[in-house]
Amino acid sequence: MKKYIIAIVLGLIGLGIVIGLNNHVDLSNVVKITFTYRFLLKMFLIILCGIALAFAGIPFFIFVLILELISFGIVTTYLAMAFSFGGIAFSILYFLIFKMVYCFLLSLISFYALKLTKNNYLYIFKRFHEYKNNRRLYLKKMLIISVFILLFSLLVTTLGNKVLLPLSKFLLKIV
């Protein structure tokens, strides 16, 4: 089972690399990478929509996780074409520092969203009261994970310029 998950993740990143190879973007004039607080608002709206759609049975967080992995492949390809080895190293370090935690939290919340969806279906079709109590439990877990996602997004927003700007100047050799 673990081999399939690793193969799927690498396949999604590979798909992003293929998409990135077909679309060429010039990144040579990138001076600094900025993070804004709009990112926090975006994350808050994604979490609200994801929790609401989990009640409806739509696995929104899985789609966000898939898009995140594909975008990692696209960004890696763009940086590799613009900055060669330094771009690849920067992209991998950025993924390990910032995106790995975010992807883990997204996979965790998508797991509980699927459990909530399954629980809602069982409650609708079988009408047992124990499924109603499980719904509250899954919702609490999803809210706790959502708070961690928002706190991590706040950390990324506040510390992103302090970590990524020196890292990008060192690895990408930009002025």
Note poorly predicted spans: none
Number of helices: 5
Task: Give the termini distance in whole angstroms.
Answer: 46 Å
As a whole number of angstroms, the C-alpha radius of gyration is: 19 Å
Class computed from helices, strands and strand pairing: mainly alpha
| Quaternary organisation of the protein chains | single chain
Largest sheet: none
- Mean pLDDT across residues: 81
What is the 3D shape?
elongated
Q: How much of the residues is beta strand, in percent?
A: under 5%
Helix content: over 70%
- N-to-C series of helices and strands: HHHHH
How many strand elements? 0
Overview of the structural elements:
With 175 residues, this protein is an all-alpha fold. Helix content is 86%, strand content 0%. The chain has 5 helices and no strands. Helix 2 packs antiparallel against helix 5, helix 3 runs antiparallel to helix 4 (85-126) and helix 4 runs antiparallel to helix 5 (129-172). The mean pLDDT is 81.
Defining traits:
single chain, mainly alpha, 175 residues
